[in-house]
Design goal:
This protein is an alpha/beta fold. The chain folds into 2 domains: 189 residues, Rossmann fold; 43 residues, no CATH class. The protein contains 10 helices and 5 strands; from the N terminus they run βαβααβαααβαβααα. The protein has a 5-stranded parallel sheet with strand order 2-1-3-4-5, sandwiched between helices. β1, α1 and β2 form a beta-alpha-beta unit. α9 packs antiparallel against α10.
């Protein structure tokens, strides 16, 4: 199986550092046998989310009520095994195009209310952020939290960043990190392809209820031991350290 890895560029500058490191990452993916495609968000008509889910969870679903390029891009994302998202840092966060793209992914994540699972669940992702100043790592942290909350798998070493006004390709660390993003998401996607995981996130209310009861019991036992410890500490304060140590 040749995993399909999508490179998603969130920068309007197709010659900039975000694209350069994205291309390095895709070469890393190819080195592991992946098929790759590149999409430039600024070339696409992706309109802002209307927030339908805030009115009703049942109003937000694939393929979204907005008729723009996300209509066909949803299908490209669904066919892919992994994606690598690269963004410039705009005021300590992603670019506007990336933010609109992420918000519109809610239509896939929210399918959990229709067939029991996010349609992004189990896909693999890596992230790249570049900027003239600080904020790249914070941007990646946010991206990881968002995509993981949508059910996307984020493997080890799935990030690369560059902070500076120079050429990111002159940073051996940034280049090595980007190259390994491509390799790693491909390896993980190929490994997952060997298994059929019907659903990652389960809502087994009976099982959860039983777990809650067990944890309540354990917590009560620990609380009782804590009371014993608290009483010992009070004696320590009143009678001196030596006597309390003997009790320990």
């Amino acid at each position: 199986m040749r995993p399909l890895v999508l490179g998603i560029n969130g920068s309007p500058r197709k010659y900039g550092n975000a694209v350069k490191l994205l291309m390095v990452a895709l070469e890393g993916a190819k080195s592991e046998g992946a098929e790759t495609k590149v999409y430039h968000l600024y070339d696409m008509d992706i309109r802002p989310c209307l927030g339908c889910v805030s009115d009703s969870e049942r109003l937000c679903k694939y393929p979204c009520v907005i008729e723009d390029d996300m209509r066909w891009f949803y299908d490209e994302l669904l066919k892919a095994d992994a994606l690598i998202l690269s963004t410039p840092v705009y005021w300590y966060g992603v670019s506007g195009a990336v933010k609109d793209f992420i918000d519109r992914l809610t239509a896939l994540e929210n399918m959990i209310y229709f067939d029991g699972r996010s349609w992004l669940e189990g896909k693999v992702a890596g992230f790249i952020a570049v900027g003239n100043d600080v904020g790249a790592l914070a941007t990646i942290q946010n991206l990881m939290a968002v995509f993981n909350s949508m059910g996307v798998l984020i493997p080890p070493w799935a990030l690369a960043y560059y902070e500076g006004r120079g050429d990111a390709l002159d940073s051996s660390q940034s280049v090595a990190d980007a190259w390994n993003i491509g390799r790693i998401v491909t390896i993980v996607a190929r490994t997952l392809g060997k298994y059929h995981i019907e659903r990652w996130y389960l809502e087994d209310r009976e099982a959860v209820k039983a777990v809650v009861e067990r944890v309540r019991g354990m917590a009560k036992e620990l609380e009782a031991k804590a009371q014993e410890r608290l009483a010992m500490l009070k004696r320590l304060m009143l009678s001196g350290h030596d006597k309390a140590r003997e009790e320990l």
